[in-house]
Amino acid sequence: MADQTRTHQDIIVRDNRSTLDRDHPKTGGQMVKVATGVAAGGSLLVLSGLTLAGTVIALAVATPLLIIFSPVLVPALITVVLIITGFLASGGFGIAAITAFSWLYRHMTGSGSDQKIESARMKVGSRGHDTKYGQHNIGVHQQHQQAAAS
């Protein structure tokens, strides 16, 4: 009960402090922070409005031009997209071919990572075997053997 009273009193004191903070004027440092925040926020808001207005004006000016030149621009855009897609596909297929030839060369010369993979697989397998029948599990393993023998 005393803990609840103390907690309640702490809440009352904290609430009184917050009301006192509202009644006291801000210090000079706090006023500088507020002024800086208002100036930065206001300037960013003005910049945002100017950017929106510029975008709307540019769209209004460019729309008739896009409509007039659309018989030329649409096929040109399709051509550019196809050319870029072709170059990207060609590069991707080239990298895949180099990777395949590199793997084939390493596999044929025996310097491939197949031995490394096999070695790693054997290590992981032996670790699993050690974990299953290892030193730290001897008691559990013996209990299983005794249970099976019974």
What does the model show?
With 150 residues, this protein is mainly α. Helix content is 91%, strand content 0%. The longest helix is centred in the middle third of the chain and has 82 residues, at 28-109. The radius of gyration is 37 Å and the shape is flat. The mean pLDDT is 77.
Short description:
This protein is mainly alpha-helical and 150 residues long.
Main sheet characteristics: none
Low-pLDDT sequence parts: none
Treating each run of at least 4 consecutive H or I residues as one helix, how many helices?
Answer: 4
Gyration radius, in Å: 37 Å
Q: What is the strand tally?
A: 0
What's the order of the H and E elements? HHHH
Essential attributes:
150 residues, mainly alpha, 4 helices, 0% strand, flat
Layout of SSEs?
Blueprint: H1 2-23, H2 28-109, H3 114-133, H4 138-149
